[in-house]
């Protein structure tokens, strides 16, 4: 299993797949203790895939975000909470308007401790009764992470109008407001 990077120098890593990576950057970027968030691709069989290759669904990758964080300022458990509150963990074939294996949800664990915390948080969510259907989000070992092309990074800042229209039009925003009112 890949190891956490040196927390004194660079922070720890967490990797989450929650459908369209454009929608997964903002919730993490606004958190105190998060140092950096990058969109990219992970979990597949092809080195350094392009957006087009991943969208075709044949590489095995998912769209994901890599979150670099300071564990002295924010816990991995808090990152997991934010992850769950930004996805539909009951959809095995994508997220909202985006369907296909490249949009499925997953937690990619960098350490055995992350795996234990991810499993505990998934079990707690399943037991909470928040969702009527089973939680299908995978928990996997971290795999090589390939950053997405520059125009995908911080899309919500580069194209705020288009980003908001997509977030609303995809059904993500209304679903999250309904499931997590006040969040």
Task: Tell me about this structure.
The structure is a single chain. The longest helix has 17 residues, at 112-128. This protein starts with 11 loop residues before the first strand and ends with a helix. The chain has 183 residues and is of the alpha+beta class. The protein is globular, with a radius of gyration of 15 Å. The chain has helices at residues 21-29, 51-55, 76-84, 112-128, 155-158, 160-169, 172-179; strands spanning 12-18, 34-42, 62-69, 94-95, 98-99, 105-109, 138-141, 145-147. Strand 4 (94-95) and strand 5 (98-99) form a beta hairpin. It has one domain: Peptide methionine sulphoxide reductase MsrA (Peptide Methionine Sulfoxide Reductase, Chain A, 2-Layer Sandwich), CATH 3.30.1060. Helices cover 34% and strands 22% of the residues.
Topology (SSEs and partners):
Elements: E1 12-18, H1 21-29, E2 34-42, H2 51-55, E3 62-69, H3 76-84, E4 94-95, E5 98-99, E6 105-109, H4 112-128, E7 138-141, E8 145-147, H5 155-158, H6 160-169, H7 172-179
Parallel strand pairs: 6-7
Antiparallel strand pairs: 1-3, 1-6, 2-3, 2-8, 4-5
Helix pairs in contact: 3-4
Order of helices and strands: EHEHEHEEEHEEHHH
- Rg, Cα atoms, Å: 15 Å
How many β-strand runs?
8
Catalogue the unreliable spans: 1-8
Number of helices: 7
CATH domain class: Alpha Beta
Reported for the largest beta sheet, the result is: 6 strands, mixed
In CATH, the topology is named Peptide Methionine Sulfoxide Reductase, Chain A
Give me the CATH superfamily: Peptide methionine sulphoxide reductase MsrA
What structural category characterises the helix and strand content? Answer: alpha+beta
CATH architecture: 2-Layer Sandwich
Indicate how many domains the architecture comprises.
1
Strands side by side in the biggest sheet: 7-6-1-3-2-8
Shape: globular
The fraction of residues assigned to DSSP E strands is 15-25%
């Amino acid at each position: 299993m890949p190891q956490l990077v040196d927390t004194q120098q660079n922070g720890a890593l967490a990797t989450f797949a929650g459908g369209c990576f454009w929608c997964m950057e903002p919730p993490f970027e606004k958190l105190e203790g998060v140092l950096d968030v990058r969109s990219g691709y992970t979990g597949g069989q092809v080195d350094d895939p392009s957006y087009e290759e991943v969208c075709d669904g044949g590489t095995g990758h998912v769209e994901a975000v890599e979150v670099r964080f300071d564990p002295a300022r924010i816990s991995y458990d808090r990152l997991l909470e934010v992850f769950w509150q930004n996805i539909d963990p009951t959809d095995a074939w994508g997220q909202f308007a985006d369907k296909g294996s490249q949009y499925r949800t997953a937690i990619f664990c960098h350490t055995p401790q992350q795996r234990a915390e991810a499993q505990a948080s998934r079990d707690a969510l399943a037991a909470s009764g928040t969702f009527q259907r089973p939680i299908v989000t995978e928990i996997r070992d971290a795999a090589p992470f390939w950053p997405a092309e520059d125009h995908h990074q911080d899309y919500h800042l580069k194209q705020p109008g288009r980003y908001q229209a997509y977030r609303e039009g995809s059904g993500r925003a209304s679903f999250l407001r309904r499931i997590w009112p006040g969040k």
